[in-house]
């Protein structure tokens, strides 16, 4: 069984379809390269759910043999911690920038694939980069870089700022919190502080992240260091002008209905009776939530506008408050940003994933973040009811068709329709047909210039960045 090891993790798994059609192919095969999610802190390419052999075998069954590659990259503080001390340390060793090392690992893997995938029968000119969650954030970052390492892209549940983007100053504060937690004196010389943290063993350094990052689901952010993305990284409002580079004009982009349920434990600070709704779920108090929204937005008027749009009042029950928080944060960090990206560049394949989880856990019955992976990768297919097995087959075929240069479904600019995957089937829908999604809320926020406000509010409710900055030099 593979073990997690940040010092020996830079590997990739290559699954080549074994079939007469694939082996006898006269031309090189298209390649699908997957970047896993996990908030830049968790998971690995060897996680059983990402077994590329099943997807490669399915591509052969569809008479579209495709090579599937899953890549690893450094995670947590090893992959993303940044700051002025680290930047100076890098400069002393001939490197520029700070942080984002995990993304640079991905770049190394993509360059390797360009050079060597032909030896496995793959076509370096037909590489589809796809990622989910933090993996989609990574794909978004690669699209902003001017290096043509792939020709098409699939972004599942994520754009650039999903996990946050921090300045070097902000990351310096987090770095200093790490030093305090590890007992390294803040008044030591910068070089000595770096040497001190480098001397800490892996287990202790990783464990220090838990108290430092506050939130139960530790989430590492990208660093806006002016190097990974030349200049500065776009803010939330920039998705109104989302445009892919000329070398990658084939895109697929979509979301799940209940994305932000993954951060529900972050709302415990706004609750009075934790877990009353079921396992691992808090019951937020409406008054506390409304007050916190006003504080975070620095505007009672904006807080009231957003609360009204999501049906949240001071008399909302705990269950109603919880559901409103889940919906507004799912919209703020995922759905509305993806919607505006689709509007800005409609020549893409747009989708929504509404298939509810069949597993008996806290998120059962929800089309929650990452459940789309269950259907696309197929490892747990045998545990799904027949209807979901059929949706899984349709999604696999769509992803493979896209990687092979074919249309997975009608492109969004043809008639303004999204492919909506539900338990009953997959159907193309317009805004008018896809009722209850939230389009009218996003359009109203856009008209009032409050798209960024909802996203920033959602980021604070889930990742609690302002609390993370308290007592640091970045505050």
TrEMBL record:
Keywords: Hydrolase. The keyword Transcription regulation does not apply. Residues 8-435 form the Carboxylesterase type B domain. One of its GO terms (molecular function) is hydrolase activity. PROSITE patterns: CARBOXYLESTERASE_B_1. It comes from the Eukaryota. SUPFAM superfamilies: alpha/beta-Hydrolases. Its EC number is 3.1.1.-. InterPro entries: AB_hydrolase_fold (IPR029058), CarbesteraseB (IPR002018), Carboxylesterase_B_AS (IPR019826), Type-B_Carboxylest/Lipase (IPR050309). It is an enzyme of class 3 (hydrolase). Pfam families: COesterase. Belongs to the type-B carboxylesterase/lipase family. This is Carboxylic ester hydrolase. It comes from Aspergillus lucknowensis.
């Amino acid at each position: 069984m593979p073990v997690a090891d940040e010092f020996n993790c830079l590997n990739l798994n290559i699954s080549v379809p074994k079939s007469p059609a694939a082996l006898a192919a006269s031309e090189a095969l298209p390649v699908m390269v997957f970047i896993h999610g996990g908030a830049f802190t968790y998971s690995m390419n060897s996680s059983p759910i990402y077994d590329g052999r099943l997807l490669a075998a399915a591509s052969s069954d569809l008479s579209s043999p495709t090579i599937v590659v899953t890549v690893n990259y450094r995670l947590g503080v090893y992959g993303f911690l940044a700051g002025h001390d680290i930047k100076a340390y890098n400069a002393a060793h001939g490197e520029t920038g700070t942080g984002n090392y995990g993304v640079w690992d991905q770049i190394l893997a993509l360059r390797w694939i360009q050079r060597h995938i032909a030896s496995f029968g793959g076509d370096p000119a037909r590489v589809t980069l796809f990622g989910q969650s933090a993996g989609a954030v990574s794909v978004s970052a690669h699209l902003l870089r001017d290096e043509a390492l792939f020709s098409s892209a699939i972004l599942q549940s994520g754009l650039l700022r999903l996990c946050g983007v921090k300045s070097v100053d902000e990351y310096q504060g987090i770095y200093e919190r790490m030093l305090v937690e590890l007992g390294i004196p803040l008044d030591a010389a910068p070089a000595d502080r770096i040497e001190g943290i480098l001397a800490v063993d892996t287990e202790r350094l990783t464990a220090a992240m838990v108290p430092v990052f506050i939130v139960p689901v530790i989430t590492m952010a990208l660093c806006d260091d002016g190097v990974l993305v030349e200049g500065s990284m776009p803010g939330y409002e920039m998705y109104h002008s989302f445009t892919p580079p000329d070398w990658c004009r084939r895109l697929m982009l979509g979301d799940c209905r209940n994305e932000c349920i993954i951060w529900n434990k972050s709302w415990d600070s706004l609750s009075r009776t934790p877990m009353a709704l079921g396992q691992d779920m808090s019951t937020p108090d409406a008054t506390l939530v409304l007050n916190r929204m006003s504080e975070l937005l620095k505007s009672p008027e904006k807080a009231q506008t957003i609360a009204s749009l999501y049906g949240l009042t001071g008399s909302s029950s705990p269950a109603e408050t919880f559901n409103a928080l889940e919906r507004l944060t799912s919209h703020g960090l995922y759905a509305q940003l993806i919607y505006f990206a689709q509007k800005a560049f409609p020549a893409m394949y747009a989708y929504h994933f509404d298939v509810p989880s069949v597993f008996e856990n806290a998120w059962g019955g929800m089309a929650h973040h990452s459940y789309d992976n269950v259907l696309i990768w197929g490892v747990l297919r045998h545990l799904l009811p027949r209807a979901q097995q059929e949706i899984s087959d349709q999604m696999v075929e769509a992803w493979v068709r896209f990687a092979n240069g074919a249309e997975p479904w009608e492109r969004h600019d043809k008639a303004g329709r999204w492919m909506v995957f539900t338990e009953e089937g997959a159907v193309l829908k317009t805004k008018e047909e896809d009722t209850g999604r939230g389009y009218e809320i996003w359009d109203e926020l856009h008209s009032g210039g409050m798209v960024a406000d909802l996203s920033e509010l959602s980021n604070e409710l889930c990742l609690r960045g302002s609390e993370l900055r308290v007592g640091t030099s970045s505050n």
